[in-house]
Q: What sequence folds into this?
């Protein structure tokens, strides 16, 4: 039998479905870097990308018996990577100061929960429209509550640059709300809290 490194993706998937740990290791070896790069592109933060990578391969092992060996394993991994990365970003956002400052949905109200989930999706979309530098400054200053000085020190940039990036981020989010009128009712209350 040829070594697993010579196997096709479909053959590896069949071995994995049978619980072959060596096949899992080979899949990890082949796809570790592209999956991580994809997670980093979505999360824009190394520690979050590492968390997403770990969740992807845990999911792969847990769901190994449900994989279709005739379909692209790489495609499956990237879909799982996307969902895990978005979930991690959502969790981070909800743990931020912004989440704590906005009104919470009523306990047990499904309608309120759905509305709240929609609001967070709009905010996440607005944040994802920012460049990596502007987004990071916005997260540090507005979501994590750091001062301009603390943000400048962490990112190794000047306090003046922090102010410029933050101002540009706020302008971008406001412009996002103008181009997406359905989001204005969500982003405007946030503006009252943070965009002063």
A:
């Amino acid at each position: 039998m040829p070594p697993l490194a010579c196997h096709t993706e479909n053959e590896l998937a069949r071995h994995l479905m049978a619980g072959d740990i060596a096949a899992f290791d080979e899949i990890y070896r082949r796809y570790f870097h592209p999956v991580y790069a994809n997670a980093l592109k979505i999360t824009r933060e190394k520690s979050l990308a590492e968390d997403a990578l770990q969740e992807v391969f845990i999911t792969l092992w847990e769901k190994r018996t449900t994989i279709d060996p005739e379909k692209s394993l790489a495609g499956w991994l990237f879909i799982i990577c996307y969902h895990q990365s978005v979930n991690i970003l959502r969790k981070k956002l909800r743990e931020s100061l912004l989440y704590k400052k906005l009104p919470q949905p009523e306990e047990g109200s499904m309608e309120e929960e759905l509305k709240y989930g929609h609001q967070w999706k709009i905010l996440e979309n607005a944040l994802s429209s920012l460049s990596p530098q502007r987004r990071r400054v916005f997260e540090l200053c507005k979501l994590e509550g750091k001062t301009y000085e603390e943000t400048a020190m962490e990112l190794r940039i000047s306090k003046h640059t922090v102010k410029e990036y933050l101002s540009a981020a706020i302008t971008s989010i406001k412009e996002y709300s103008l181009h997406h009128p359905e989001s204005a009712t969500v982003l405007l209350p946030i503006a009252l809290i943070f965009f002063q």
Summary: The two ends are 67 Å apart (CA to CA). The chain has a mean pLDDT of 80. The domain at 108-194 is CATH 1.10.10.10 (Arc Repressor Mutant, subunit A).
